[in-house]
Amino acid sequence: MVILGIDPGIERTGFGVINVDAAGVKPLDFGRIRTAKTLPFATRLRELTGDLTSIILKWRPDYAAVEELFFSKNTKTAMTVAHARGVVLELLEEHGIPVIELNPGTVKQSITGNGRADKTQVMRMIKRLLNISQPLASDDVADALAVAMCASTMTKTYAAH
């Protein structure tokens, strides 16, 4: 089973693709989609859509997991992330990919055992759990892989029904 994990954002969207089978969990692809601040907002959303479509067509995920919006004090940032998240959800729906939405605390609890773990702890555990030796590009990438990993335990339940 192939799962696409996404940590949505407008400047940086992290993605992680994992394969889950009887042998365990294996990372297939991971990275981040970046858009330039100098571009119009609509253009940035379109670029996100195009890049994410390429990833979907390459890996044909059985499920996708998307991190829910963590509302911070900066409402402008929260609004732009919400727009990016909406584009991601619509694109997954368009491709017929079932979506699991996860809040950051649930993901952190699942990966580190601590729902309030910091970004460094999540990154360290993801690298260990997925046996990744190279540095991850950013915490967005680690978060996307963590979202996919967390969803992998949930999809087993969904697949059984």
Could you give the order of the helices and strands? EEEHEHEHHH
Q: What radius of gyration results from the CA coordinates? A: 15 Å
Terminal-residue CA separation = 15 Å
- What is the count of β-strands? 5
Q: What spatial order of strands do you see in the largest sheet?
A: 3-2-1-4-5
Helix % is 40-55%
List segments where confidence is low: pLDDT < 50 over at least 5 consecutive residues. 157-161
> Main beta sheet: strand number and arrangement?
5 strands, mixed
Main structural class: alpha/beta
Principal-axes geometry comes out as globular
Chain-wise SSE layout:
Elements: E1 2-7, E2 12-21, E3 24-34, H1 41-59, E4 63-67, H2 75-94, E5 99-102, H3 104-112, H4 119-129, H5 139-160
Helix pairs in contact: 1-2, 3-5, 4-5
Keywords:
5 helices, 50% helix, alpha/beta, 5 strands, globular
Describe this structure in a few short sentences.
Helix content is 50%, strand content 22%. It has helices at 41-59, 75-94, 104-112, 119-129, 139-160, and strands spanning 2-7, 12-21, 24-34, 63-67, 99-102. The model is unreliable at 157-161 (pLDDT under 50).
Can you tell me about this structure?
The chain is an alpha/beta fold and 161 residues long. The chain is built from 5 helices and 5 strands, in the order βββαβαβααα. The chain has a 5-stranded mixed beta sheet. Helix 2 links the parallel strand 4 and strand 5.
